[in-house]
Amino acid sequence: MRIKRSTWAIPYGIFLALFVALPLVLIALYAFQDRTGAFTLQNFAKFFNTPEDLHTFIYSIEIALLNTVICLLLGYPAAWILANSELNRSSVTVILFILPMWINMLIRTLATVALFDFLRMPLGEGALIFGMVYNFLPFMIYPIYNTLNKMDGSYAEAAQDLGASPAEVFTKVTLPLSMPGVLSGLLMVFMPTISTFAVAELLTLNKVKLFGTTIQENINNGMWNYGAALALIMLAIIGITSAFTDSDSKRADETGGLI
User: Fold this and answer.
1) pLDDT at position 229, please?
2) Do residues 101 and 35 make contact, with C-beta atoms less than 8 angstroms apart?
3) Is 33 within the bounds of a domain?
4) In this structure, are residues 213 and 128 in contact, taking their beta carbons and an 8 Å threshold?
5) Is 128 a domain residue?
6) Full-prediction pTM beyond 0.70?
7) Dist CA 83 CA 85 (whole Å)
8) What is the tally of structural domains in the chain?
9) 3-class secondary structure, 123
10) What's phi and psi for 21, nearest 5 deg?
11) Could you tell me if residue 91 is inside a domain?
12) Using only C-alpha atoms, what is the Rg of the chain?
């Protein structure tokens, strides 16, 4: 008896239903309920009427944007150097950049704390930004490198034959064609940054609170409904960001990045 190819997808469908769809449904249910299980919007009203939580949410977005911009400014040149065959002839260099991704984030963060202690530097917002960049920079480098490495070099050669300067080749050919990788890197850095809490707790000694910490505190204190509402708000922001990024990425793919 021949098994249909679609049958092999059943275990994955069950996994997605139990560990992806069901938790999201439960978050939505808790977010729109009070302690008695009755429907309410009070959890969301409480968020907008609590200045501390609202400020933490805005501050978390600012930190996520700052970290994403720094990772982009540092990651794009690194990815370009790695993808340039004249400057890089060994895959070992690429592995060295990607190697931190193989280590657990908490271990990397604890190593950063130890480094700051060794250098006698105070833990705080500066340490948080440093730790964020250190943890998420590889997630910016790799997608950009992957796109640049697969780029057809004939486009740049054609531009040079037509008299384009190196700066014009980069701004009008290389950069537009690499936008799918850039958008992917932006998404891979921004989304986990806005939701993290352990990194902030370790690198600031709980002096700086991010939105993920607020969600964790409410859930740990038994305030499941309010914590679920905060998680749903964060998921909405991530979903909107992901939708815009996917739309821009598809447009770049359709036009070849040259608009």
Assistant:
1) 95
2) no
3) no
4) no
5) yes
6) yes
7) 6
8) 1
9) coil
10) -70, -50
11) yes
12) 22
Is residue 57 within 8 Å of residue 237, measured between CB atoms? no
Q: 63 Cβ partners below 8 Å, 6+ apart? A: 128, 129, 132, 193, 194, 210
Q: Which pLDDT tens digit goes with each residue over 12-62?
A: 999 999 999 999 999 999 999 998 889 999 999 999 999 999 999 999 999
29-68 CB burial, b ≥16 within 10 A, e <16: ebbbbeeeeeebebbbebbeeeeebeebbeebbebbeebb
Q: Is residue 45 part of a domain?
A: no
The confidence score (pLDDT) of residue 259 equals 43
Question: Rounded to whole angstroms, how far apart are CA atoms 32 and 43?
Answer: 7
Task: With CA atoms as reference, report the closest residue to 31 among 181, 229, 253.
Answer: 229
Give 187's Cβ-side CA count (13 Å radius): 20
Give per-residue pLDDT as tens, 108-123.
Answer: 999 999 999 999 999 9
User: In the prediction, which pLDDT does 246 show?
Assistant: 65
Rounded distance between C-alpha atoms, residue 78 and residue 142, angstroms = 10
Place of tokens 């919007």: 41
Write out the residue range of the structural domain in which residue 112 sits.
Answer: 50-255
pLDDT given at position 97:
75
Q: In which residue ranges of the chain is pLDDT below 50?
A: 258-259
Specify the pLDDT at position 86: 59
Q: What CATH number is attached to the domain comprising 218? A: 1.10.3720.10
Residue 135: its pLDDT value, please? 92
Q: Extract the tokens encoding 203.
A: 């690198």
What is the predicted pLDDT for the residue at 151?
Answer: 87
Which tokens go with 190? Answer: 């921004």
Distance of CA 80 to the CA centre of its chain: 20
User: What local confidence, expressed as pLDDT, does residue 245 receive?
Assistant: 67
Cα 63 from Cα 38, distance rounded (Å): 36
Matching residue, tokens 């720094």: 70
